[in-house]
Amino acid sequence: MAKRDAIVFDCDEVLLYWVKGFIHYHNEVYHTKVKGVSNYVFNRELGVDGPTLQKRIDVFNSSWKFGNLKPTDDAVEAISYLHKNRPDIAKIVVTRCGIGDCTEQLRLLNLFNVFGIEFTNVVFLRTDESKYSTLAKLKRSYNILGFIDDCKENVDVGEELTISLWVRTSSKGTEYLSAAISEPFKKADNTKSETPKNRPMVNSADLAPKDDDLPF
After folding, report:
1. How far apart are the first and last CA of the chain?
2. Could you tell me the pTM of the whole model?
3. Domain ranges within the chain, ordered by starting residue
4. Which of 97, 100, 93 is nearest to 115 (CA)?
5. Contact 96, 216 (CB under 8 A)
6. Across the strands, what pairs with 124?
7. How far is residue 103's CA from residue 64's CA, in Å, rounded to a whole number?
8. How far apart are CA 127 and CA 95, in angstroms?
9. What's the rounded Cα separation, in Å, for the pair 108 and 215?
10. Per-residue pLDDT tens for 184-197?
């Protein structure tokens, strides 16, 4: 039996602006004045150590504000295009936002309220958990046309599993997201497309965290 085609999405900074939401929350609750951060590794910029930052993230990811994150710039357009023109393609989200009923329900509601659809599957992982086993399992079940992520660790996992990649960073915005999703399918909406080639938008080495920073 032929495998169903699928596109696998990271969530934070790919579909939803988690960093902006967390920084706003952190400034409000802890009276910091951070305007922005360079990447996911920002405990230094917030003036705290890794364990303290992780505790604050866990609290935020269980709060109502976590369930009201804004979509990245053109994510709604991209998902709408894919849903309308290629409903046969499974839309799968793999998110390392943490596990637990509250966090998971908030994320599911946020995704539904923003995109107006139910994704084929949303897989929840711990914030420090590798995506390797999850992506390997998905690869066995689906023909993965592409994996969209912004974290170097996850990008490396995709490369190791020889999954086609679209790489992004929060500093670059998401203006390419619609094109990355729609280009392979626009030529023939009703025919099976070829698997897109790897499309790194930036050098993934630029995303490498410092050893003493908090990775996630």
Report:
1. 36
2. 0.79
3. 4-17+70-207, 19-67
4. 93
5. yes
6. 95
7. 9
8. 8
9. 24
10. 444 334 334 333 34
Q: Fold for domain 4-17+70-207?
A: Rossmann fold (3.40.50)
- Burial 35-74, CB ≥16 within 10 A → b, else e: eebebbbbbebbebeeeebbebbeebbbbeebbebebbeb
Question: Could you write out the three-class secondary structure of the chain?
Answer: CCCEEEEEECCECCCECHHHHHHHHHHHHHCCCCCCCCCCCCHHHHCCCHHHHHHHHHHHCCCCCHHHCCECCCHHHHHHHHHHHCCCCEEEEEECCCCCHHHHHHHHHHHHHHHCCCCCEEEECCCCCCCHHHHHHHHHHEEEEEEEECCHHHHHHHHHCCCCEEECCHHHCCCCHHHHHHHHHHCCCCCCCCCCCCEECCCHHHHCCCCCCCCC
pLDDT one-digit tens code per residue, 1-51: 899 999 999 999 899 999 999 999 999 999 999 887 766 667 778 888 989
How many residues does this entry show for the chain?
A: 216
Residues 6+ apart with CB under 8 A from 90: 4, 5, 6, 7, 120, 121, 142
Cα separation of 203 and 174, whole Å?
16
The identity of residue 184, as a single letter, is P
